[in-house]
Amino acid sequence: MQVVDAGDNSPIEGVKVSIDGQSGTTDNSGKVEIKNLSSGTYTIKASKEGYSDNSLEVSITDSSKTVSISLSKQTLTKLTDLSKAKSYYYTLKVKEVSGKLQTNIEIYVDDFGNKEKLISYNPDGKVDMEIYVVGDKGLIKMGGGNNMSVDKDTAKGYIENIASIGQSFVSSFKDEYDNFVITPSGTLTVKVSKGTQNGYSTDSVEYTVNISGAQYTFAGWVINSGEYKGFLTRLLIENKTPNLKSDEIKTIEINVKDFGKSFDITL
User: In 3D, which of 266, 241, 236, 267 has the Cα closest to residue 252?
Assistant: First the structure.
């Protein structure tokens, strides 16, 4: 039995092949031996992460004959920048090893960013800041009832600064996703699957990388169908570096949903 890539006919290693209750895994030549098959008709099933499962019905009269089955690489959705979404609801949570929420924010975006609202919470879950953008005007509400009217650019600058840690990891994910998933290259090991997240059908990608001496596992979910195809709906980053201190970052979680929904954002 041999399993090959449907695109270039190259052998695929590590494919699980099953037939008539027997199973095996292909070697680096894409082959696996299934023994003691009598003459007859069988269904071969082949599967591997990153490829679409395939099955093939074959009639076997000579058990020594090599049967070939092909697998196609899973087609993944190219990422679309959130700036192209008319509206969405975005949350960012940065949690320390101790469990303390270092960052906990919600951002509502409407009318392609002409209306925005950020709510920032302190570690106790109480609101400590709200920032609004409506047209060319902005408003910053601080704890204690102190309000400050500002222009749009100033308000947006505050929002971008507060959300910057999340955006830096989103950018890192996009670079890796484009380089190793959409146009595969290098040696990064990527686990690919499909599923549902935040109510959307998604392509899921997971990989581990080293960044500035720290080890991070990235798991991202990209909407793969419908009107919002291409938008990232969830990103979860976990710091797997050994011996982290209690106040160091353990997880960064971003969720984006409610695409296309209108939000009541006023000053």
Answer: 236
Strands (E), the chain: 2-5, 16-19, 22-25, 40-47, 51-52, 54-60, 68-73, 88-96, 101-110, 115-121, 127-134, 137-142, 147-151, 191-197, 200-211, 214-223, 232-239, 249-257
Domain end, chosen from 55, 73, 91, is at: 73
Burial of 16 (0-12, 13-18, 19+ CB in 10 A): middle
Q: What is the pLDDT of residue 65?
A: 72
| Predicted pLDDT of residue 176 | 81
Domain assignment present for residue 262? The answer is no
- Structural domain for 199, as ranges: 82-257
Nearest-Å Rg of the Cα atoms of the chain is 25
pLDDT-derived band at 1, boundaries 50, 70, 90: confident
